[in-house]
Amino acid sequence: MILKEKPDAAVIDFHLPDMSGAEICKEIRRNVPDSDIRLFLFTGDTQASTKESALAAGADAVVVKSPEAEEIVNLVSQHLY
User: Fold this and answer.
1) DSSP calls for 46-71
2) Which of 56, 47, 45 lies closest to 22 in space, CA to CA?
3) How many CA atoms, within 13 angstroms, populate the side-chain half-sphere of residue 75?
4) Does residue 60 carry a pLDDT above 90?
5) Domain hosting residue 64, numbered range
6) Is the overall model pTM greater than 0.90, yes or no?
7) Mean pLDDT over residues 14-40, rounded?
8) Residues ≥6 apart with Cβ < 8 Å to 2
């Protein structure tokens, strides 16, 4: 859907049933290399290697899930405005 719609930004969960959020980021960057779509990965994994691999795959930022989802809303708002 992201490749078809080309939104300004997308929040992608890291752990998805068919492919990881990092794989989705790679796919988007490979298929739309000149795009300025902001990709935000949302994960419950606090390991530094998870963040590193997501950023290497093309994510613009990685947010660790917390009881307060406000952080992701603020991050997306900062990057879009």
Assistant:
1) --HHHHHHHHHTT-SEEEE--S-THH
2) 56
3) 20
4) yes
5) 2-80
6) no
7) 90
8) 10, 24, 28, 37
CATH number assigned to the domain comprising residue 6: 3.40.50.2300
Sheet with 38-43: strands ordered across: 9-13, 38-43, 61-64
Measured CA to CA, the distance from residue 5 to residue 78 in angstroms comes to 21
In angstroms, rounded to a whole number, what is the distance separating the alpha carbons of residues 55 and 62?
7
Q: Which two tokens stand for residue 1?
A: 């859907």
For residue 65, the Cα-to-chain-centroid distance in whole angstroms is 13
The predicted-structure confidence for 25-36, as pLDDT tens digits, reads as follows 999 999 987 888
> Helix, strand, or coil here: 38?
strand
- Coil, helix or strand at residue 37: coil
CA distance 34 to 36: 7
